[in-house]
Design brief:
Helix content: 40-55%
Number of strands: 28
Strand order of the largest sheet: 1-28-27-26
Structural class: alpha+beta
Oligomer: single chain
Shape: extended
Strand content: 5-15%
Radius of gyration: 50 Å
Largest sheet: 4 strands, antiparallel
Mean pLDDT: 83
Low-confidence stretches: 29-37, 1301-1343
Length: 1343
């Protein structure tokens, strides 16, 4: 059902529990019927898996967080059952009848309770409650409080008695509950596992028993419905088949009625004992997920019941499932601990429904319901068709429901606006908007288009209503439209649309100034408070003063510059408000506010002198008039007092300003490190950053470590002083770390651009050490315009394995015309590491340094090192690297090219270990050129043992046409101790080219030592089919071997070999291809082939294949051999063959032994047969299928009266027997009349027989029957009399025993053991005597 490779589901394996340390035996099942409930593992949601495990002698509970599979918690807990909360780290534990709930994170007990009866099943039914099932009742236990016990909800129905409870589910509002159980079926004709469910309504307080195995609740929004429709779906498997039912519960008017659905659930033949075990409903997609015991997943549409997809997702039982919220799918755990999920694939489900299911209507609905792609063309075409035909209301519905709003565009709105309005009807555009409002929220364009005419008509109350119902998408543009009509309503729109500037403006215009600051802080908006204050001061000065005070006294600090506020007051000559504002703003008497204190005095001295006197008299401000005098005295007597004591004096008064001016007068003359340090401190604290820069740059007397640490702690807005210190005293790494970690990367640019570009390599290295973003590093490197040592930069990035980082910078420098060898060295290293055609670069570029690059290549690629050394004539290095890596061919070429005697003398010295290998390379080449093949072979045997040399050597021989010689060389090499796979493989390839007659023998001897795939390609190319088949078999490619034997039968086919190969083929289609091949090529061997294929083929398909070309007689032995499987197609074919052969004896045996065929159809064929025995078989078949009339009629036609009598007796029907008896009387066959009386003695009525005998003078033939019937009557009366007497005797004995028992039992004190019921009340009468609703069929007649 996978639609040509496209499937509508996505499958995901989340976790294998064994991989996180959970023992396989801890993932176990209950025994017997308990096939769907684990002993030790629970899954309440897609958040946690809970497993109980025993490690050594300790019991543990393991909690696996599915969001972080590595986060596995183990707790030493002993419990009978453990279930995790669906969302939180809260665990419920059960030990016998003791229930406890713990919060794992807070390590506190949430709740506990002691049950009065055993809990046989429990699970979380929502985030606040647990459902508990006992043998008799169902309880709900809330964890919202610490004391309340479980509350009884309903009693278990009698149909669930003895059943194993496997699930309990509720609707979100807890109005409907369903309890699910399974039990063994004692009915011989029923399905072996019987499902029983109890559906309970909490509002009505009644139950309904239902036969079913799995159930779920769901909701669906039907077309034309105002609210969602609540549905109940369940599945059941019986002996006659399986069904999925979908019914409505709690119907709400005026919603349309949901039509009940009952659809078949398909189970394949190999799953004859399979049944549903769990169900989930995807609310978004409206899809039912049904999982079976054997691991099959079924998908059904919730609205129509249509089957969407079915496939097997697990080879093992999936015994527990839950909703997978992230994908709106289902998640489960199978027997082997595999945690897997399945969900609808949003990208493929609609194309699958259209192409595979060919169900456009379902695709149309699902695409709209879940906003899925794939049906866009359908929607567009349907919309265009309806619009063009004038069906505007229907077109509007299509546009409104289009998936992902593809038709909800400005163009659609314009299209509806252009339609002329018919008199007496609602305009199409308003119809469109009405449908959109019913569906939900309008988008931005729709909201704007609807708002304009509504406001123009003065109906803003409609707009308010829609805003409250969240029907409109708020935007700045919508607010601007509304603002022209209602400022308060516009404010509401701006707030919802998050347009802070317009919100603040509305607050200001509405006079709600107190809300401006609160709102701005809440949304993180920074208004222009100065402009706002100016506006408010012009409109309402008294409110402006309050607003200014609010801004100045904000808890996070002043939100506006105080001096700027004073300017605004003074611009309107508001002296008194300005004074009040300043007195409040300067109440802390801060030193940095001295200039404002001065201005406060100035304005009042000029305009209100009495206020100025009060300010000075009350010491509201500190003029600090003596500071200059103190500084002058301290400077004058510094040498006598000593700088240390003077510094301590200023610090005791916390006068950083005084200390700065004092130290400034002596620092240039002092060599005391402490003086220089304190001066840097004072200058920093008084904001004299330029002076800090100067002293850090020029002074040679301060302690650099101490100053560095102080400047880092000071967190200056300008980090240039710190940069200068770190650059002068080589604290570059510390500087980069500090600036990067504090988000001051712009000062890193300042350092390398303006201070010291030569430090760029160390800066880059530091940034790499702190994992700085590559983009930032590249940008910094590109911005450096000064020169710096490129070698150092390359070294910094190379030792951190980040050479590739500087590639763009290197290429930019090279394109700029720079020819520094270091640039090209770095570029070469990058090309080598990235394998970006390094060989070409090393050969063609003349600027890089061969010695440097060659050294870099030695451990990475010796051949590249060889190229570099050869280019730079680095003789010693080249000889060393070629010797170390056995690159003697390259060494020989280089020596020939160099032509230096001293080099030859160096490599040919007697004590050179590599001398022989080098000579072999030179001599071998020379021998080939001179055709001295004997010597060439001697040298070649020392060369071919090196696998890397073999390919080039063979090409050299082939290029010169020396085929026999290379074959001879490789054949000789087979016996070498160092012979490797390449020698055997290359010899095989050469045999395929030049000596194919030798290949098979070679392969049989050495197939284990050749590279089979490589030789397969060679044999294919050489058309050596027998050898190809041989290799396929040896390589376990049995599918290809079988195909090759069939395709090249003339050369490669052998019957015995083919039989051995075909049974090992993995692709079953090859079996049927083989049968077709044998039918065409080797029909006499077909039966032999079928014998070996019998366990592997589909017999129905095979029979159909041979029936198609009327070749069934060829496979008669096969039909006989497989008839014991009782397959319909086999039985039909074999029976037809027997009919054709007129073998009625064998045919009778066949139809009696194997009954899987259309009995009636075969009988109707046989009753027209020319031969009597075949017509007799027809009557026999009619009898087997209870077609008594047809069987007897056929027997009467052929005067087979004995068969007719036997059939009538077998029918067990008086009517049939009496009809045949009458027939015998009518034709005057007295012997058959007598035989009927004997054969159907129990079926015939004596009065009818007596009448027939009397009317037709058959008393002599009737008399034996009469005697026997009279005897039978006497026996029956005697038996009845005996039973009556025995019963009467038992009654008498019982009455006598009761008469002897006393009225009150003296052994219990004379008290009666009867409990008095309610006085004056009749016992309650229930519908079926159980207090519950009577059972209904699965059509849900009771709801």
């Amino acid at each position: 059902m996978d639609g040509g490779g496209v499937i509508p589901i996505a499958f995901c394996e989340h976790l294998q529990l064994s991989s996180v340390g959970i023992q396989p035996q801890s993932i176990s099942f209950q025994v017997g019927l308990r096939v769907v409930e684990p002993k030790t593992l629970t899954l309440e949601s897609d958040h946690f898996i809970c497993v109980r495990e025993k490690v050594g002698e300790q019991n543990q509970v393991i909690i696996v967080d599915l969001a972080d599979a590595n986060n596995v918690m183990r707790r030493p807990i002993t419990a009978d059952s453990a279930i995790m909360h669906p969302q939180q780290k809260i665990i419920a534990l059960k030990a016998q009848r003791q229930l406890q709930v713990f919060n794992i994170e807070t390590k506190q007990k949430v709740k506990s309770h002691q049950m009065n009866e055993d809990a046989v099943f429990w699970k979380w039914i929502n985030a606040n409650a647990i459902g508990i099932v006992t043998e008799t009742s169902v309880y709900h236990w809330s964890i919202g409080d610490a004391t309340s016990p479980p509350q009884k909800v309903f009693d278990r129905h009698a149909t669930l008695a003895g059943a194993q409870i496997i699930n309990y589910r509720t609707t979100p509002d807890n109005k409907w509950l369903v309890l699910v159980g399974i039990a063994g079926n004692t009915n011989p004709g029923g399905f072996k596992v019987k499902g029983a469910m109890q559906l309970y309504s909490t509002e009505r307080g009644v139950s309904q028993p239902i036969e079913g195995h799995a159930a779920a609740f769901g909701e669906l929004k039907l077309d034309g419905a105002a609210t969602s429709t609540k549905l109940f779906t369940f599945s059941v498997r019986t002996a006659t088949g399986a069904k999925l039912h979908i019914v409505e519960i709690d119907h709400q008017a005026p919603n349309p009625q949901f039509t009940k659905k009952a659809v078949d659930v398909f189970f394949p033949k190999e799953a004859a004992n399979d049944f549903p075990v769990s169900m989930q409903v995807s609310k978004r997609h409206g899809v039912i997920y049904l999982v079976t015991k054997y691991g099959f997943i079924h998908l059904y549409d919730l609205e129509t019941g249509a089957n969407i997809y079915m496939n097997r997702i697990s080879g093992d039982t999936i015994f527990v499932t839950a909703e997978h919220e992230a994908s709106d799918g289902i998640i489960g755990v199978n027997k082997k601990g595999q945690v897997l999920s399945v969900n609808v694939d949003d990208n493929t489900v609609i194309p699958y429904i259209l192409s595979t299911l060919n169900n456009p209507e379902l695709a149309f609905k699902m695409a709209s319901r879940a906003n899925l792609p794939g049906a866009d063309d359908l929607y567009v075409k349907q919309y265009q068709h309806l619009f063009a035909s004038g069906q505007y209301a229907e077109a509007a519905k299509i546009a409104a429901n289009s998936p992902r709003g593809i038709l909800r565009t400005p163009a659609t709105i314009e299209q509806f606006k252009q339609v002329p309005v018919q008199p007496g009807t609602l305009s199409p555009i308003l119809q469109y908007f009405g449908i959109l409002l019913e569906k939900g929220e309008l988008n931005k364009y729709e909201s704007l288009e609807l708002a304009r005419p509504v406001l123009a008509q003065g109906r803003k109350q409609l707009l308010e209503k829609w805003l409250k119902e969240s029907k409109l998408e708020c935007s700045e543009e919508l607010g601007d439209i509304v603002r022209l009509h209602d400022m308060t309503l516009a404010l509401s729109v701006y707030l919802r649309a998050n347009v802070p500037n317009k919100v603040v403006a509305c607050f200001a215009e509405l006079g709600q100034y107190d809300k401006i600051v609160l709102y701005s802080k809440k949304v993180g908006y920074q208004p222009d408070y100065v402009a706002l204050l100016q506006l408010i001061m012009r409109v309402a000065p008294e409110k402006g003063a309050e607003f200014a005070t609010q801004l100045a006294n904000d808890e996070a600090g002043p939100l506006v510059d105080i001096e700027r506020v004073v300017d605004i007051f003074m611009s309107q000559n508001l002296i008194q408000p300005a004074t009040a504002f300043l007195l409040d703003a300067l109440k802390d008497n801060k030193s940095e506010q001295a200039h404002l204190q001065t201005r406060l005095l100035e304005m009042n001295l000029m305009n209100a002198p009495q206020v100025a006197d009060a300010i000075l008299g009350n010491e509201m401000i500190n003029i600090r008039q003596n500071l200059q005098v103190v500084i002058q005295v301290a400077t004058k007597y510094s040498d006598i007092l000593g700088p240390v004591k003077v510094i301590e004096m200023f610090e005791s008064f916390k006068s950083a300003e005084g200390l700065y001016y004092y130290l400034g007068s002596i620092v240039n003359l002092s060599q005391d490190p402490e003086v220089h340090f304190k001066y840097i401190q004072a200058a920093t604290r008084t904001g004299q950053i330029r002076e800090v820069e100067r002293i850090c740059r020029e002074s040679n007397y301060y302690n650099p470590e101490k100053v560095k640490n102080f400047l880092k702690e000071a967190k200056l807005p300008d980090q240039l002083p710190l940069i200068i210190v770190c650059d002068r005293f080589d604290f570059v790494h510390d500087l980069v770390l500090y600036l990067y970690q504090n988000g001051l990367t712009n000062f890193i640019e300042v350092y390398v651009q303006r201070v010291n570009s030569a430090r760029c390599p160390q800066v880059i290295g530091g940034l790499l050490d702190v994992d700085c973003d590559e983009g930032t590093i590249k940008s910094l490197l590109a911005s450096v315009t000064g020169n710096f040592p490129i070698d150092e930069l390359v070294e910094e990035v190379e030792k951190r394995n980040r050479l590739k980082l500087i590639l763009p910078w290197l290429e930019a420098r090279i394109q700029g015309g720079q020819t520094d060898p270091a640039l090209y060295n770095a570029l070469a290293k990058i090309y080598i590491d990235s394998n970006n055609n390094p060989e070409a670069f090393l050969k063609e570029n003349n600027i890089y340094e061969p010695l440097v690059v060659g050294k870099y290549c030695e451990k990475r690629d010796p051949y590249l090192a060889y190229i570099a050394y050869a280019k730079g004539f680095c003789d010693e290095e080249l000889i060393r690297i070629t010797n170390e890596n056995s690159m003697f061919k390259q060494q020989a070429r280089y020596l020939v090219k160099r032509r230096r005697v001293e080099l030859w003398q160096q490599v040919l010295v007697a004590d050179n270990l590599h001398r022989r290998a080098l000579i072999d390379q030179q001599v071998h080449q020379a021998c080939i050129e001179k055709s001295e093949f004997r010597l060439a072979q001697i040298c070649g045997l020392n060369i071919i043992v090196h696998a890397e040399e073999l390919s080039a050597l063979i090409k050299e021989y082939e290029k010169r046409g020396f085929f026999d010689e290379i074959l001879s060389l490789l054949e000789a090499g087979l016996s070498l101790e160092r012979a490797h796979m390449g020698i055997f493989t290359e010899l095989s390839i050469l045999y395929s080219k030049y000596r194919p007659e030798k290949l098979m023998e070679h392969l049989k001897l050495f197939v284990s030592r050749v590279n089979i795939p490589k030789v397969i390609r060679a044999t294919e190319k050489a058309h050596l089919w027998s050898e190809l088949v041989f290799l396929y078999v040896k390589y376990d490619e049995f599918d290809n071997a079988a195909l090759a034997m069939m395709e090249r039968a003339a050369d490669a086919w052998d019957h015995n070999q083919f039989k051995e190969v075909i049974v090992k083929a993995a692709n079953v289609e090859i079996y049927y291809k083989a049968l077709s091949f044998y039918l065409q090529e080797q029909p006499l061997l077909l039966t032999d082939l079928l014998t070996v294929l019998t366990p592997r083929i589909d017999h129905t398909r095979v029979v159909k294949m041979f029936l198609r070309d009327d070749n069934v007689p060829l496979v008669r032995p096969y039909l006989v051999a497989v008839q014991h499987f009782n397959i319909e197609a086999v039985n039909d074919a074999y029976n037809d063959l027997l009919i054709e052969e007129e073998d009625f004896k064998t045919l009778r045996h066949s139809i009696d032994s194997f009954d899987n065929f259309n009995n009636v159809s075969l009988a109707s064929r046989l009753e027209k047969h020319d031969l009597l025995e075949f017509r007799r078989l027809a009557a026999h078949l009619y009898k087997k299928n209870a077609k008594w009339e047809e069987s007897i009629t056929l027997s009467k036609q052929d005067k087979l009266f004995k068969d007719a009598i036997i059939t009538a007796a077998a029918s067990g029907l008086s009517e049939v027997a009496e009809d045949l008896l009458t027939y015998f009387v009518d034709i005057g066959n007295k012997e058959c009349f007598t035989a009927m009386l004997y054969a159907s003695f129990d079926l015939l009525r004596s009065d009818i027989i007596m009448e027939l005998s009397w009317q037709h003078g058959l008393n002599d033939f009737y008399m034996p029957y009469k005697v026997q019937s009279q005897r039978s009557l006497v026996d029956k009366i005697a038996k009845l009399e005996k039973e009556v007497k025995e019963h009467a005797k038992k009654v008498t004995v019982k009455e006598e025993a009761e008469a002897e028992v006393p009225i009150i039992n003296p052994g219990i004190g004379g008290k009666l053991l009867l409990t008095q019921g309610p006085s004056g009340m009749a016992p309650p009468v229930y519908m079926n005597g159980t207090g519950m609703m009577p059972p209904h069929m699965t059509g849900f007649g009771g709801f």
